[in-house]
């Protein structure tokens, strides 16, 4: 029997209202307007991160598959650095037994700023058949790896069945993470964040790797190479932003205009309708948030917007109050996480 987590709102609804609630959230997620973006081929946008080993490209160069086997994982990196931008890909997760496997789509400049790097993460945390897939988002600024800003969520679909679009918007004003054009998280820049708000040019990465020590059930479920190779498919590649040299002390003045243009794009603003979708997603699918982890942060970080409807769902550990299990332990809400940044 598959367990389902219910939010306090859902538990208060009679069966007919609950069905209506589920219909609204499903319909809202399916009807989001597609963004107006230009997709690129692999050759136009990315290069192998280490080597061509375990990387497969389609004949039209519009799809790239990253493989993990017992010899190695694999990864790709954008051919350029960007000073703010919108980065997106349609991704299909590996199928069958994928415990211990992390597929990541993220931005970083750790190779240039080793001690004070910035990073924006979307990480998929592997899965055991019959369980709900889980993923997390995270933000680091200026090397603040001790102040990770992770949130964790369940998925409302099986990401190994079909491709779904995952996107990161990063501009001087806000950061938005998207799943299929639905905003699932927004961080609005707050002056009190100072260097914790990512602000240095970053590359865009996609990787697959063995994270048996932590990714699934706190490391209890590990990669089983009987099911190799594990294949993550990336297509519909989007890289929109100002291309820069990361070591320039004074960034190109063209980026001022580029950033201004970026902030008026449809994907740079959460509309009232999209905000409703984001709220519904977070009420139903978020199971850890650093903003509600008062053990870790007795005073919430300055960018946190504390919503009563969310706060009542979480314990002081940042994990859900509900004891229903849905594909992994949630005793602490963070117990399976070790920051990859």
Automatic annotation (TrEMBL):
Residue ranges constituting the GH16 domain according to the UniProt record: 40-234
Region (Disordered): 318-341
A single BP term in Gene Ontology: cell wall biogenesis
Basic and acidic residues compositional bias, start-end: 331-341
Record's comment on post-translational modification: Contains at least one intrachain disulfide bond essential for its enzymatic activity.
InterPro entries documented for this protein: Beta-glucanase-like (IPR000757), Beta-glucanase/XTH (IPR044791), ConA-like_dom_sf (IPR013320), GH16_AS (IPR008263), XET_C (IPR010713), XTH (IPR016455)
Record keywords, A-Z: Apoplast, Cell wall, Cell wall biogenesis/degradation, Disulfide bond, Glycoprotein, Glycosidase, Hydrolase, Secreted, Signal, Transferase
UniProt cross-references to Pfam families, sorted A to Z: Glyco_hydro_16, XET_C
Localisation per UniProt entry: Secreted, Cell wall; Secreted, Extracellular space, Apoplast
PROSITE patterns listed in its UniProt record: GH16_1 (PS01034), GH16_2 (PS51762)
Function field: Catalyzes xyloglucan endohydrolysis (XEH) and/or endotransglycosylation (XET). Cleaves and religates xyloglucan polymers, an essential constituent of the primary cell wall, and thereby participates in cell wall construction of growing tissues.
PANTHER family listed in its UniProt record: XYLOGLUCAN ENDOTRANSGLUCOSYLASE/HYDROLASE PROTEIN 8-RELATED
Protein name, UniProt field: Xyloglucan endotransglucosylase/hydrolase
